[in-house]
Amino acid sequence: MVKAAALLALILPSAALAEAPLSAEHQEQLTHLVVQDCGSCHGLKLTGGLGRAITPEALQGHTVDGLQTIILDGIPGTAMPPWRPLLTEAEAAWIAAYLLEVRE
Amino acid sequence: MRQLLTSLILSFTLGTAVCAEVQVHATGDMGVVIERTTGSVLIIDQSDMDVIARVEGFGDLSHASAVFSPDERYAYIFGRDGGLTKLDLVTQSIAGRVMQGGNSIGGAISDDGQLVAVSNYEPGGVRVFDADTLDMVADFPTGSKTIGLVDAPGDRFVFSLWDDGETWIADMSGDVPALTKIPDMGVNPYDALITGDGRRYIVGLFGEDGLTTLDLWADTPEAKRILPNYGRGEDPLPVYKMPHLEGWALAGDRFALPAVGRHEVLWLDAQNLTELGRTQTHGQPVFAVARPDGRHVWVNYAHPNNDTVEVIDTRSGEVLHTLNPGPAVLHMEFTARGHQVWVSVRDANRIDIYDTDTFEKLGEIPAETPSGIFFTARAHRIGL
Questions:
Q1: How many domains does chain A contain in total?
Q2: Across residues B89-96, what is the average pLDDT?
Q3: What are phi and psi of B374, to 5 degrees?
Q4: Partners of B50 in beta bridges
Q5: Is A92 inside a domain boundary?
Q6: Interfacial residues of A (vs B; Cβ cutoff 8 Å)
Q7: Is residue A104 included in any domain, yes or no?
Q8: Whose CA, among B37, B78, B162, B169, lies 20 to 30 Å from B223?
Q9: Are A41 and B121 inside 8 Å of each other by CB?
């Protein structure tokens, strides 16, 4: 957690987080997407399934930028699909921060 | 069918009469509905189209499924968190529960009803339990995420290895379990089914264009590719939810199977296992399930097309009817003879019930983020 927070401090000025914040309703929709739809591979509690665990502990060492890229472009050769057709960059950045439990 | 038996017990002790009512539910048209977010299970009555009870305490039920004891009294619920829970449909209470693994992906019950097997991602492998006591009787570590676990005739369990592309057959009929390992099943098997006659085990592949089948009637079953290159070398579309293979694939003389990374249902000749054609669909299919008589195949779809269900005519391969039940249709379960289908609509917190002939909506049942629906008639089906 400390590491993630430190990394966030380095990238915050350039990250999409700096853009206009998403509305509360929008954030709620994204939370639902994470729990239910990301959860179909990663588990409702994000503790893993066919996809790896994506709890804050399991994601230690990842940055918001790095996760945002993985969410948008997927991981070729694995079952992680690119979400770019369905999510904006700001939404992916919000999800990345949400997963790392970085709160704005 | 709900029956109310009232027994009148007369006690003449002290000259007073005591009445006791005993409510008896036969289990033959019951079912269970997984409420995935709340970790609870609804016990439903099919003919009353109603909820009998909500039972809590099943842990993490994402991707949960159920099998039934041969007498249809118990449902065994397999949770994501490794929990194996035995639910008593008669008393509507939990009759036993063990945490058998860290991360699970479904289970099966042996043909004699005495063994329950659970497939695990973590630790990878299959564990087998006494159906009565839930004591572990066998452990088959695979070193891989393990998927596609089914029962097969002869007290056998069959399952596949996501990481290693193998299928293992565990024969539990002797004093000591006997394992047969079949290599070269293909890259990243994601799920499998066994046909209703117990003969063919069909494995879907995520990492390869095609499927693999085993003839379980053979003395030494060998991997055989079917529908090779069905993607024609084209880049697959993103897969936002893995398709599921269930033993309801046989429609008349053909199997209906969901394609991976394509908006298609694939039709396979049930005799010689060659392609008969394809149906273009509304999205990436998740379930393609044949009505028990095989006349129609009902298909639901992955995010973001998961508000729609299409019904395909088996003879023509054409989409016959489209329904829009609502956001996030996750599962469909037919009554034993197929006159109704129950559809879980997760984000509407509802089960919808349709007449499969007229497609008219007959009713609905409130449920908290429902996913899998399992009717007790599965107790008498191979591979379910």
A1: 1
A2: 97
A3: -135, 120
A4: B45
A5: yes
A6: 32, 35-37, 39-41, 43-45, 47-50, 74, 79, 81-83, 85-86
A7: no
A8: B78
A9: no
Contact A52, A59 (CB under 8 A): no
B241 touches chain A (CB under 8 A): yes
Report residue B288's pLDDT band, with 50, 70 and 90 as the boundaries: very high
Amino acid occupying residue B204: G
Q: Is residue A71 part of a domain?
A: yes
C-beta of residue B203 within 8 angstroms of C-beta of residue B213:
yes
- Whole-model pTM over 0.95: no
Partner-chain contact A79 B304, CB within 8 Å: no
CB B135 within 8 A of CB B175: no
Report CB contact under 8 Å: B190, A50. yes
Task: Please name the member of A40, A43, A79 whose beta carbon is closest to the beta carbon of B206.
Answer: A79
Q: In terms of residue numbers, what domain contains A30?
A: 2-99
Instruction: Show the low-confidence residues of chain A (pLDDT under 50).
Output: 1-18, 104
Q: How many CB pairs under 8 A join A and B?
A: 69
Residue A6 domain-assigned?
Answer: yes
Q: Which residue has the higher pLDDT, B176 or B232?
A: B176
Confidence of residue B13 (pLDDT cuts 50, 70, 90): very low
Take residue A51 and report the two structure tokens written for it: 């996809």
Q: Work out the mean pLDDT of chain B and round it to a whole number.
A: 93
Mean pLDDT for the stretch of residues B329-344: 97
CA distance readout (Å), B9 to A48, B6, B18, B22, B176: 54, 9, 6, 11, 51
- For position A55, which CATH number holds? 1.10.760.10
Q: Are B276 and B269 in contact (CB under 8 A)?
A: yes
Residue A100 · residue A92 · CB < 8 Å: no
ipTM of the complex: 0.80
